[in-house]
Amino acid sequence: MTYANILTSNAAYPQAATGGAGAPSVTPGNRRGMSFFNVYYKHHFTDGMLQGWYFSADYAHQKNSRIDMEAWAGRIQARYVFRSKKYQPRMMYSHQTFSGDDPNTPSQERFDPLFFEGSPSSWATGTKSAMTFINSNVKSHQLEWSLKPSIKDTLTLRYAHIRVDKIRSPVQFGQAVRFELAGNDNIVAGVTKPHLADDVFIEYSRILTPNKYLTAGFSVSMPGEGLDAAASRNLPNWMGGFVNIVINY
Which distant-in-sequence residues (6+ apart) come within 8 Å of 5 by Cβ? Predict the structure, then answer.
């Protein structure tokens, strides 16, 4: 369990226009005075009928009486490892939600993610999409499959279905908190259809030496009807790949 209180901050919060009609208002300093409480639980089943299963649950609640703000986020995960099978296949399902601001209320319900999280194996929402949507006003269903052909090699396939929590509510883009309107698209002001994107990511990792690791991957993000409608056109798929070597000293 964790509790924290923000003593001072200049961070700005966007707030949906009344009824979601128009650009959001942006007020700097709204993070100041915000407090949050988080509880996390996980359990590995080592025997019995559920042997090989792993479950976890996470919940965070944020409140700031100074600006009439109350928000929440949560995640559940279930994972199973086929330890007796060749290559030790592993499958995992995750569902996570980060509340958005309700345009039909005067209060602020937008979850403040505090930090950017870009790792698909951690709190990122999607893969390529994690480089655009921050963890606020988004929710996702995510599936992961992995194989270990050898003790040194791991192959992982990830899929994410990403939606907004509240339509006509600010959707923030970029690895930092930015509020500029995207030309005439006004996507930052919210979308009218909840489906944002579907991501597919395949990743290969190899232990080269005890302190040297090779990782390569390819990802594609396919825009959903929410983004297409906001842009008034069919947006293209966004693809990317990488190869890197990490050396620990």
Answer: 33, 34, 35
Could you tell me the residue range of the domain that residue 91 belongs to?
2-247
Give the mean pLDDT per block of 10 residues along the chain (249 residues): 95 87 84 97 88 94 96 96 87 96 94 83 86 90 95 96 93 58 53 94 95 96 91 91 94
Q: Distance between CA 76 and CA 92 in Å, rounded?
A: 11
- CA distances 117 to 46, 73, 92, Å, are 31, 14, 19
Q: What is the pLDDT of residue 247?
A: 95
Lateral strand order in the sheet of 195-209: 2-5, 35-44, 53-64, 69-81, 90-98, 138-150, 153-163, 195-209, 212-223, 238-247
What is the pTM (predicted TM-score) of this model?
Answer: 0.89
Q: Environment class of residue 114 by beta-carbon count within 10 Å: exposed (0-12), middle (13-18) or buried (19+)?
A: middle
Q: Are 136 and 113 in contact (CB under 8 A)?
A: yes
